[in-house]
Write a structure and sequence with these properties.
8 helices; 139 residues
């Protein structure tokens, strides 16, 4: 995954791939994903990152941003503040192969989820599944 990139660029610019106009019968979600790909990644809100990541769009650029957000907000959650479970869920439920190609990022996420104390049991199960799928987890 690229470590340093222009966050003022859109996914279309970063990927060098412009998607055509969505089909006329596209769902609102599909139209939204197409629109979000055209926006500078630095302007994407956590729920928008979750939408794109959940569709496996732009992962090389968006996962590092999402992990940064999760890392920065995790201490607030531990102190009784609000934490974005939707973004967390979307990030930790990416396929094992995604994390195998980004071991440093996976390690950073592992450290982040270690400080979370107040997540739902469902998210906790997903965190445990993410942790057990990491390379060397069974060692």
């Amino acid at each position: 995954m690229p470590e340093d990139f222009d966050r003022g660029s859109s996914l279309e610019e970063l990927e060098g791939l412009r998607w055509p106009v969505p089909p006329a019968d596209a769902t609102p979600m599909v139209r939204n994903v197409y629109e979000l790909r055209r926006r500078p990644v630095a302007t994407l809100e956590p729920h928008e990152l979750a939408r794109l990541i959940g569709q496996d769009v732009g992962l090389p650029w968006l996962l590092p941003l999402a992990v940064d957000i999760l890392r920065d907000t995790a201490p607030k959650q531990a102190g009784g503040g609000w934490f974005d479970d939707d973004l967390l869920y979307t990030v930790i439920t990416r396929k094992r192969e995604v994390w195998a190609t980004a071991p440093e990022l996976a390690h950073e996420l592992k450290e982040t989820v270690a400080v979370l104390t107040d997540v739902s049991r469902y998210v906790r199960q997903d965190i445990d599944a993410f942790l057990s799928a990491l390379p060397g987890a069974d060692a």
